[in-house]
Write a structure and sequence with these properties.
Blueprint: H1 3-30, H2 35-39, H3 43-53, H4 55-73, H5 76-98, H6 103-128, H7 133-158, H8 166-205, H9 211-214, H10 225-238, H11 241-272, H12 277-289, H13 291-307
Helix pairs in contact: 1-3, 1-4, 3-4, 3-5, 4-5, 5-6, 7-8, 8-11, 10-11, 11-13, 12-13
């Protein structure tokens, strides 16, 4: 293939990457019900074309897609923070996979870099708007409470026979608000995990094997994390204020880490026993629908730290 042909192919890939991303965003706006499902895989196109076309082309696709979105929506602040972070997620995932980082490092580095850039973006936005970050957070919290109140009033109007307890509703809202950062981080981690899984399958179809993401069923959290989990669980009962807020959210994140380890244990034995797809699907559906199965998987991941269900050689992990 000549240099001209290579350049032509590269330009074609860049244009397809940009068009694909715009198509996905357009689908989200036209069919809002698909929003959550599509949101989970928004980093995938950038991840794919970053690995296929290289770093420079990946940056072009990322910046061009973001610029088009900002021009169309005319909402620079929201688009830059929300969709920009997802584009950056795909790009950084590609960088980490190309450098053959372990799965744990891929997810950790991606989280730290993307969240760090988001914090910088929020700081710059607050500076431009001449508002303190605390004021921005307070306004969002106030808006959340106002929307919750309107939602409850609407429920009371539509279903008067339900005898809804406003005090209980507000208490549950406060709990959700307290745990919101941890829940958000966990949803982000789930998004990373799903994109890595899909990217692994795409690469396998092209005959490319990346050893660091090949055996995800053998993944194991560092042993020292269990001490952090125990410390946060104890701290919740004695701490108050900001310290309790931090402890609650760290506990939620650490439990989710052990959920990943539990899923890896389950997947390991499914592969070992060559379990039919229908059985696997049914079990994963139970995990998604029933909290009992969710906590069972978390417990499986936690106790795997001591029992080592898969009999892994920790020296090779």
């Amino acid at each position: 293939m000549t240099g001209t042909q290579i350049q032509s192919t590269l330009i074609k890939d860049i244009l397809i990457g940009i068009l694909l991303y715009i198509l996905i965003i357009t689908t989200m706006y036209i069919m809002p019900l698909t929003g959550v499902a599509i949101w989970l895989f928004l980093p995938l196109p950038i991840l794919f074309y970053r690995l296929k076309t290289g770093r420079n082309s990946g940056i072009v696709i990322m910046l061009a897609s973001l610029a088009i979105l900002m021009l169309v929506t005319r909402n620079i602040a929201m688009i830059t923070l929300y969709f920009g972070s997802l584009l950056m997620t795909g790009f950084i995932l590609g960088e980490c996979i190309e450098k053959h980082f372990s799965v744990g490092k891929i997810m950790l580095f991606t989280c730290l870099i993307v969240f760090g850039l988001c914090l910088v973006g929020v700081f710059l936005y607050s500076t431009i708007q001449r508002q303190e970050i605390q004021q921005l957070i307070s306004s969002y919290v106030s808006n959340y409470h106002a929307m919750s109140g309107e939602f409850f009033s609407e429920l009371e109007r539509l279903y008067p026979e339900m005898n809804l307890d406003r005090q209980m509703f507000e208490k549950e809202n406060s709990v959700i608000l307290l745990a919101a950062p941890g829940i958000f981080i966990n949803s982000y981690l789930m998004m990373l995990w799903l994109n890595i899984l899909l990217m692994k399958k795409i690469l396998l179809k092209k005959g490319i094997v990346v050893k660091t993401i090949e055996n995800l069923s053998r993944w194991k959290a560092p042993d020292y994390l269990v001490f952090g989990l125990i410390a946060m669980a104890v701290l919740i009962f004695f701490a108050s204020g900001v310290l309790k807020f931090i402890a609650v959210n760290l506990l939620i994140v650490l439990l989710f880490v052990y959920f990943f380890q539990g899923i890896a244990v389950v997947s390991f034995f499914f592969q070992k026993k060559r379990t039919p797809f229908a059985v696997r699907f049914f079990f994963y559906l139970l995990i998604a629908l029933l909290p009992q199965f969710l906590f069972l998987v978390i417990g499986c991941g936690l106790f795997d730290t001591w029992i080592n269900f898969r009999k892994l050689d920790t020296a090779t992990l």
